[in-house]
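[DERIVE C-ALPHA COORDINATES]
===
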Amino acid sequence: MRTCTRELWHAPRPMLDRIAEAKTFAIPPISNFYVGAVARGLSGRLYLGANFEFPGQALSFCVHAEQAAVVQAMAGGETGLEMIAVSAAPCGYCRQFLQELTSASTLQIAIPNRPPTLLSSLLPEAFGPSDLGVTAALMSPQAHGLALDAPDALAAAALAAANASYAPYSQSYAGVALRTTDGAIFSGAVAENAAYNPSMSPMEAAIVNLAIGGRKSYADIAEAVLVEVKDAKASQADASRAVLASIGGAPLRVLTV
Protein backbone atom coordinates (compact mmCIF):
# COMPACT_ATOMS: atom_id res chain seq x y z
CA MET A 1 0.00 0.00 0.00
CA ARG A 2 1.41 3.38 -1.02
CA THR A 3 0.90 6.40 1.20
CA CYS A 4 3.59 8.97 0.44
CA THR A 5 7.11 9.44 -0.85
CA ARG A 6 9.28 8.85 2.21
CA GLU A 7 12.52 10.08 0.61
CA LEU A 8 11.10 13.60 0.58
CA TRP A 9 10.85 13.69 4.35
CA HIS A 10 14.49 12.97 5.21
CA ALA A 11 16.18 16.18 4.02
CA PRO A 12 18.22 17.75 6.88
CA ARG A 13 16.94 21.32 6.46
CA PRO A 14 15.34 22.93 9.54
CA MET A 15 11.57 22.55 9.88
CA LEU A 16 10.75 26.20 9.36
CA ASP A 17 12.67 26.22 6.08
CA ARG A 18 10.41 23.47 4.74
CA ILE A 19 7.11 25.29 5.28
CA ALA A 20 7.26 26.81 1.78
CA GLU A 21 7.67 23.30 0.35
CA ALA A 22 4.67 22.08 2.34
CA LYS A 23 2.54 24.92 0.98
CA THR A 24 3.00 23.65 -2.57
CA PHE A 25 0.72 20.71 -1.79
CA ALA A 26 -2.20 22.95 -0.70
CA ILE A 27 -5.42 22.91 -2.74
CA PRO A 28 -7.60 25.79 -1.38
CA PRO A 29 -10.01 26.72 -4.23
CA ILE A 30 -12.41 28.53 -1.88
CA SER A 31 -10.11 30.73 0.22
CA ASN A 32 -7.02 30.81 -1.99
CA PHE A 33 -5.14 30.92 1.34
CA TYR A 34 -2.18 28.54 1.32
CA VAL A 35 -0.97 27.02 4.59
CA GLY A 36 1.98 24.71 5.15
CA ALA A 37 2.94 22.62 8.17
CA VAL A 38 5.92 20.40 8.98
CA ALA A 39 5.62 17.82 11.74
CA ARG A 40 8.49 16.02 13.46
CA GLY A 41 7.57 12.56 14.68
CA LEU A 42 9.01 10.83 17.74
CA SER A 43 11.34 9.02 15.34
CA GLY A 44 12.82 12.36 14.23
CA ARG A 45 11.42 12.05 10.70
CA LEU A 46 9.64 15.02 9.12
CA TYR A 47 6.18 15.01 7.51
CA LEU A 48 4.57 17.73 5.41
CA GLY A 49 1.00 18.99 5.65
CA ALA A 50 -1.11 21.49 3.70
CA ASN A 51 -4.70 22.71 3.64
CA PHE A 52 -7.36 21.25 1.33
CA GLU A 53 -10.81 22.62 0.44
CA PHE A 54 -13.66 21.07 -1.54
CA PRO A 55 -15.73 23.44 -3.73
CA GLY A 56 -19.47 23.30 -3.22
CA GLN A 57 -19.18 21.48 0.11
CA ALA A 58 -19.63 22.75 3.67
CA LEU A 59 -16.57 24.45 5.11
CA SER A 60 -16.48 21.78 7.82
CA PHE A 61 -15.05 19.42 5.18
CA CYS A 62 -11.89 21.54 4.88
CA VAL A 63 -8.62 19.95 5.99
CA HIS A 64 -6.19 22.14 7.92
CA ALA A 65 -2.45 21.87 7.31
CA GLU A 66 -1.77 20.72 10.87
CA GLN A 67 -4.32 17.92 10.46
CA ALA A 68 -2.71 16.87 7.18
CA ALA A 69 0.74 16.72 8.78
CA VAL A 70 -0.65 14.50 11.55
CA VAL A 71 -2.27 12.20 8.96
CA GLN A 72 1.03 11.89 7.11
CA ALA A 73 2.87 11.12 10.35
CA MET A 74 0.33 8.42 11.17
CA ALA A 75 0.79 6.95 7.68
CA GLY A 76 4.49 6.86 8.46
CA GLY A 77 3.89 4.77 11.59
CA GLU A 78 4.56 7.51 14.15
CA THR A 79 2.97 7.21 17.59
CA GLY A 80 3.39 10.86 18.53
CA LEU A 81 4.86 14.21 17.49
CA GLU A 82 7.64 16.24 19.08
CA MET A 83 7.02 19.48 17.20
CA ILE A 84 4.95 20.99 14.43
CA ALA A 85 6.01 24.07 12.48
CA VAL A 86 3.27 26.12 10.81
CA SER A 87 3.26 29.13 8.49
CA ALA A 88 0.83 30.97 10.82
CA ALA A 89 -0.35 30.50 14.39
CA PRO A 90 -2.64 27.45 14.62
CA CYS A 91 -6.33 28.35 14.78
CA GLY A 92 -8.45 27.20 17.71
CA TYR A 93 -9.79 24.29 15.66
CA CYS A 94 -6.26 22.96 15.09
CA ARG A 95 -5.23 23.49 18.70
CA GLN A 96 -8.18 21.33 19.74
CA PHE A 97 -7.31 18.68 17.14
CA LEU A 98 -3.68 18.55 18.32
CA GLN A 99 -4.85 18.27 21.95
CA GLU A 100 -6.06 14.76 21.06
CA LEU A 101 -2.53 13.51 20.28
CA THR A 102 -0.62 11.10 22.49
CA SER A 103 2.13 13.70 22.87
CA ALA A 104 -0.14 16.73 23.41
CA SER A 105 1.35 17.60 26.80
CA THR A 106 4.87 17.96 25.37
CA LEU A 107 4.11 19.02 21.79
CA GLN A 108 5.88 22.22 20.71
CA ILE A 109 4.49 24.62 18.10
CA ALA A 110 6.96 26.57 15.96
CA ILE A 111 5.92 29.66 13.99
CA PRO A 112 8.28 31.82 11.88
CA ASN A 113 10.01 34.59 13.83
CA ARG A 114 8.87 33.30 17.21
CA PRO A 115 10.38 30.86 19.72
CA PRO A 116 8.70 27.43 19.94
CA THR A 117 5.74 27.30 22.32
CA LEU A 118 4.12 24.36 24.06
CA LEU A 119 0.64 23.50 22.82
CA SER A 120 -0.50 23.64 26.45
CA SER A 121 0.42 27.34 26.51
CA LEU A 122 -1.67 28.01 23.40
CA LEU A 123 -4.64 26.01 24.72
CA PRO A 124 -4.94 26.58 28.47
CA GLU A 125 -7.60 24.67 30.45
CA ALA A 126 -7.91 22.29 27.52
CA PHE A 127 -10.71 19.76 26.98
CA GLY A 128 -9.48 16.40 25.79
CA PRO A 129 -9.86 12.60 25.87
CA SER A 130 -9.40 12.31 29.64
CA ASP A 131 -12.42 14.56 30.19
CA LEU A 132 -14.57 11.88 28.54
CA GLY A 133 -12.88 8.95 30.25
CA VAL A 134 -10.77 7.95 27.24
CA THR A 135 -7.32 6.66 28.18
CA ALA A 136 -6.04 6.20 24.62
CA ALA A 137 -5.19 9.13 22.35
CA LEU A 138 -4.81 9.89 18.67
CA MET A 139 -1.68 8.26 17.21
CA SER A 140 -1.80 5.40 19.73
CA PRO A 141 -1.84 1.99 17.98
CA GLN A 142 -5.36 0.71 17.26
CA ALA A 143 -6.54 -2.79 16.28
CA HIS A 144 -10.29 -3.43 16.13
CA GLY A 145 -10.43 -6.94 14.68
CA LEU A 146 -12.76 -6.06 11.80
CA ALA A 147 -12.88 -8.58 8.96
CA LEU A 148 -14.26 -8.97 5.42
CA ASP A 149 -14.73 -12.16 3.45
CA ALA A 150 -12.09 -12.33 0.67
CA PRO A 151 -11.66 -8.58 0.07
CA ASP A 152 -9.97 -7.35 -3.10
CA ALA A 153 -6.85 -5.19 -2.80
CA LEU A 154 -8.73 -1.89 -2.54
CA ALA A 155 -11.20 -3.20 0.04
CA ALA A 156 -8.34 -4.77 2.00
CA ALA A 157 -6.60 -1.39 2.18
CA ALA A 158 -9.79 0.28 3.41
CA LEU A 159 -10.27 -2.52 5.96
CA ALA A 160 -6.74 -2.08 7.26
CA ALA A 161 -7.41 1.66 7.68
CA ALA A 162 -10.67 0.94 9.52
CA ASN A 163 -8.87 -1.42 11.87
CA ALA A 164 -6.30 1.29 12.59
CA SER A 165 -8.89 4.07 12.96
CA TYR A 166 -9.36 6.13 16.11
CA ALA A 167 -13.01 6.39 17.14
CA PRO A 168 -13.23 6.04 20.93
CA TYR A 169 -16.31 8.25 21.25
CA SER A 170 -18.67 6.67 18.70
CA GLN A 171 -16.93 3.33 18.02
CA SER A 172 -17.76 4.09 14.37
CA TYR A 173 -14.53 2.67 13.01
CA ALA A 174 -14.03 3.48 9.34
CA GLY A 175 -11.40 3.55 6.63
CA VAL A 176 -11.29 4.70 3.01
CA ALA A 177 -9.02 3.55 0.19
CA LEU A 178 -8.61 5.34 -3.14
CA ARG A 179 -7.34 3.68 -6.31
CA THR A 180 -5.76 5.89 -8.96
CA THR A 181 -5.86 5.39 -12.70
CA ASP A 182 -2.43 3.72 -12.63
CA GLY A 183 -3.42 1.30 -9.87
CA ALA A 184 -1.78 2.99 -6.85
CA ILE A 185 -3.74 2.84 -3.59
CA PHE A 186 -3.91 5.53 -0.89
CA SER A 187 -5.85 5.05 2.33
CA GLY A 188 -7.00 7.00 5.38
CA ALA A 189 -8.72 6.35 8.69
CA VAL A 190 -11.24 8.25 10.79
CA ALA A 191 -9.66 10.30 13.60
CA GLU A 192 -12.23 11.41 16.18
CA ASN A 193 -11.82 14.26 18.64
CA ALA A 194 -13.18 14.81 22.13
CA ALA A 195 -14.81 18.04 20.91
CA TYR A 196 -16.25 16.12 17.91
CA ASN A 197 -16.12 18.95 15.34
CA PRO A 198 -12.36 18.80 14.66
CA SER A 199 -12.69 15.08 13.89
CA MET A 200 -11.07 13.97 10.62
CA SER A 201 -13.04 11.81 8.19
CA PRO A 202 -11.39 8.81 6.51
CA MET A 203 -12.09 10.32 3.07
CA GLU A 204 -10.25 13.51 4.03
CA ALA A 205 -7.34 11.48 5.39
CA ALA A 206 -7.12 9.38 2.22
CA ILE A 207 -7.16 12.52 0.05
CA VAL A 208 -4.33 14.02 2.14
CA ASN A 209 -2.21 10.91 1.63
CA LEU A 210 -3.01 10.93 -2.09
CA ALA A 211 -2.27 14.63 -2.63
CA ILE A 212 0.91 14.77 -0.56
CA GLY A 213 1.88 11.41 -2.04
CA GLY A 214 2.34 13.20 -5.34
CA ARG A 215 -1.09 13.14 -6.99
CA LYS A 216 -1.86 16.83 -7.35
CA SER A 217 -4.91 16.17 -9.56
CA TYR A 218 -8.00 14.59 -8.09
CA ALA A 219 -8.77 13.37 -11.62
CA ASP A 220 -6.36 10.52 -10.88
CA ILE A 221 -8.94 8.94 -8.53
CA ALA A 222 -10.65 6.07 -10.36
CA GLU A 223 -12.42 4.25 -7.52
CA ALA A 224 -12.98 4.49 -3.77
CA VAL A 225 -13.98 2.03 -1.07
CA LEU A 226 -15.32 2.86 2.39
CA VAL A 227 -15.29 0.18 5.09
CA GLU A 228 -17.23 1.03 8.25
CA VAL A 229 -19.02 -0.78 11.04
CA LYS A 230 -22.65 -1.74 10.46
CA ASP A 231 -25.24 0.70 11.86
CA ALA A 232 -22.50 3.20 12.72
CA LYS A 233 -23.54 6.02 15.04
CA ALA A 234 -21.54 8.34 12.79
CA SER A 235 -21.62 6.94 9.25
CA GLN A 236 -19.08 8.23 6.75
CA ALA A 237 -20.99 7.13 3.63
CA ASP A 238 -22.89 10.30 2.70
CA ALA A 239 -20.01 12.64 3.55
CA SER A 240 -17.59 10.52 1.52
CA ARG A 241 -19.89 10.56 -1.51
CA ALA A 242 -20.32 14.33 -1.22
CA VAL A 243 -16.58 14.98 -1.13
CA LEU A 244 -15.96 12.62 -4.07
CA ALA A 245 -18.71 14.36 -6.06
CA SER A 246 -17.06 17.74 -5.51
CA ILE A 247 -13.66 16.62 -6.81
CA GLY A 248 -14.57 14.53 -9.83
CA GLY A 249 -17.29 12.03 -9.03
CA ALA A 250 -15.36 8.75 -8.74
CA PRO A 251 -17.63 5.89 -7.62
CA LEU A 252 -17.72 4.88 -3.95
CA ARG A 253 -18.22 1.31 -2.82
CA VAL A 254 -19.46 1.01 0.79
CA LEU A 255 -18.78 -2.18 2.74
CA THR A 256 -20.00 -2.74 6.30
CA VAL A 257 -18.50 -5.09 8.86
Notes: Residues 153-256 form a domain with the Cytidine Deaminase; domain 2 fold (CATH 3.40.140.10). The chain has two domains: 6-132, 153-256. The beta strands are 36-41, 46-50, 81-86, 108-110, 117-118, 174-180, 185-189, 221-228, 252-256. The chain is about 25% helix and 20% strand.
